[in-house]
Amino acid sequence: MNGNQFMFYMFASVIIISSILTVTSRKILRAAVYLLFVLVSTSGLYFMLNYQFLAAIQLTLYAGGIVVLIIFSILLTSHIGERFDLIKPQKSLFSAIAVIAGAVLCIITILNYKFSAGQAVAREVNMNIIGKDLLSMEYNGFILPFEVISILLLAAMIGSIVVAKKIKK
Length: 169
Fold this sequence. Notes:
Elements: H1 3-24, H2 28-48, H3 52-76, H4 89-112, H5 127-134, H6 143-164
Helix pairs in contact: 1-2, 2-3, 3-6
């Protein structure tokens, strides 16, 4: 086993274990921290695939932004010690059946698909073009999505402050 395989299996195991812990944890703050582990490990897989830009977006937007806002919301609303109710056995059984059916469907689909090598020619990466595209409002520009994301994060922060604000009686 070489280093890349070891890193892949490590990231995959962290994703699987943390995903299960995220949905089964009874404490909301722990669930948010497990979600953070999932998102950081996913960005690690993107780094392994040499998708540095996508990995950086994964880290900054999801792991760095959304999860931090979730944790701030939890801490600001004083729900840090809140525990979720136990899940009924019927709900667990139906969830397990749905997970197994989804996994079987995914495995069958992957095994039946005929993968072939792509014929596209690799393009040269030019940082000047990427920088201009990020700041452009033209056809291939990315300034509008970044502005929408910043408004989304601002709205989430204002919403968490409004929810956390205690009414004095």
